[in-house]
Design goal:
This protein is of the alpha+beta class. It has helices at 4-9, 13-28, 55-65, 94-105, 128-137, 166-178, 182-192, 289-298, 305-315, 334-340, 345-358; strands at residues 45-52, 69-79, 82-91, 113-116, 119-124, 146-156, 158-160, 196-197, 200-204, 212-217, 222-226, 229-233, 239-240, 243-255, 323-324, 342-343, 363-370, 375-383, 387-391, 405-411, 425-431. β18 (375-383) and β19 (387-391) form a beta hairpin. The longest helix has 16 residues, at 13-28.
């Protein structure tokens, strides 16, 4: 049983809740319907567990914090695939809410602590981005219409990647930064040998995303535009484990609307190759007879491009035809992903672009970071009236593209070498 000595040792709500649950067990603390604050969550948020803490423990916690608690719950939810613990404290009155808020602010600060009237929400997590996203997506606070981000990323200058080695190499760099060892260094060298490195870095044209600014360290010696990409050329680059890299600082504003770049072109043509963006490429075999047959079956009866895209996204709903599983960061290729019927975000994006092009709808690929989650790859399709419209094929388009999709790579042919040497630092500069 939890005793008063345990309570005196810490005023952290997490400790008390953990002790309560361990001490009373499921026979004393029954699982409840989801915490009221977490009911009717939007797509991408799922309640895993939700428990209301018994009155005797709730009252003990309130006395320690200096305010009366009317209700206290402990829940775990998944936000776009990532778990976070949410503790909700409902104060009995305004004075108690003030006292509880003051006490909790001594040990925790926003965005991990949010107050809404007599409700105090505490997040148990070590990622402020995940906490912010939980607050916005759950409706605890209004979601901004636009967010300006500053992304600081160490990007290798890759000429030719190895799709199967990119994510393991990234993970090896993270491991080496946390726990350096000769074994991990050897692993990095082994994986790096599968790549061809150069002195150029290709990023999404800053004018595509509107108010975007890019700085580098070291500074480039020149740049050249190729379609929706700008290639930045460098001379003397720093090396890490013999891999050349550049520090990129990208400031970009991401709006909550769904239009990327207006265009009046009915069937866009790549400025790089002069080829229609409905054409097949080695990465996207849209002219393969079996894939064309599949695309026709998926979009049967749809003559409007938007309806075709809707059908393709619905077909890609994870678990329906393609499972979301396998190696993290995988890129198996369209044919293999279709054959094995599973993959990750890059695979879903490849499948979407291939099927869209096979259906006669211009499409291209977009990459960057999903705020509060990880590196991510999604896509854009072209509407003759509205321009390029971003969609997220991972999840079958259920998660709309918006303020969390930070784009800084674009590909019109499927070639998009991406290799991070560390986890990017993502800061919110401004919200509107």
């Amino acid at each position: 049983m939890l005793n008063s000595k345990d309570l005196r040792r810490s005023c952290l709500v997490l400790v008390w809740l953990s002790c309560c649950i361990a001490a009373f067990g499921q026979s004393r603390i029954a699982r409840q319907q989801a915490e009221p604050l977490l009911r009717n969550l939007p797509a991408g948020l799922v309640v895993v567990t939700s428990t209301e803490i018994p009155a005797e423990n709730r009252d003990s916690i309130g006395r320690k914090l200096g305010g009366k608690i009317e209700r206290l719950s402990n829940s775990t939810i998944r936000v776009h695939g990532r778990p976070i613990q949410v503790n909700v404290i409902v104060a009995a009155d305004d004075d108690s809410a003030d006292a509880l808020w003051t006490a909790l602010n001594r040990i925790k600060r926003p965005p991990f602590l949010v107050r809404r009237g007599r409700e105090i929400i505490e997040y148990v997590a070590d990622d402020d981005a995940l906490a912010r996203k939980t607050t916005w997506e759950s409706g605890i606070e209004p979601k901004p219409k636009s967010v300006r981000y500053r992304v600081t990323a160490e990007l290798a200058t890759v000429d030719k990647p190895d799709d199967t080695a990119a994510n393991p190499l990234f993970q090896a760099f993270i491991d080496q930064s946390l726990r350096p060892s000769p074994e991990t260094a050897s692993r990095i060298a082994e994986l790096a040998s599968k790549f061809t490195f150069g002195k150029s870095l290709a990023l999404r044209d800053p004018t595509v995303s509107g108010d975007t600014k890019v700085r580098f360290g070291p500074a480039p010696i020149g740049s050249r535009k190729a379609g929706e990409k700008i290639f930045y050329d460098f001379d003397d680059l720093p090396l890490r484990h013999r891999i050349p890299y550049v520090k990129a600082i990208i400031e970009t504003t991401v709006d909550g609307d769904d239009v990327s770049t207006p265009s009046s072109r009915p069937k866009p043509v790549s400025e790089t190759t002069g080829i229609s963006l409905t054409a097949a490429t080695p990465r996207w075999p849209a002219d393969d007879s079996k894939i064309r047959e599949l695309a026709e079956s998926i979009t049967a009866g749809n003559t409007d491009d938007a309806a075709k895209i809707g059908s393709i996204l619905a077909w890609l709903t994870p678990g329906k035809n393609i499972r979301y599983e396998g190696q993290t960061g995988s890129r198996w290729g369209t044919a293999k992903a279709l054959q094995q019927k599973f993959g990750h975000c890059w695979d879903f994006s490849d499948l979407f672009v291939t099927l869209a092009r096979a259906s006669g709808v211009p499409a291209r690929q977009v990459g960057g970071w999903l705020f509060g989650t990880s590196g991510h790859v999604w896509a854009e399709w072209h509407d003759a009236r509205r321009g390029w419209i971003p969609v997220d094929p991972t999840g079958g388009g259920i998660l709309p593209c918006g303020i969390y999709h930070i784009a800084y790579f674009t590909s019109e042919d499927g070639e998009m070498p991406v290799l991070y040497l560390s986890i990017p630092k993502i800061e919110i500069v401004e919200t509107r």
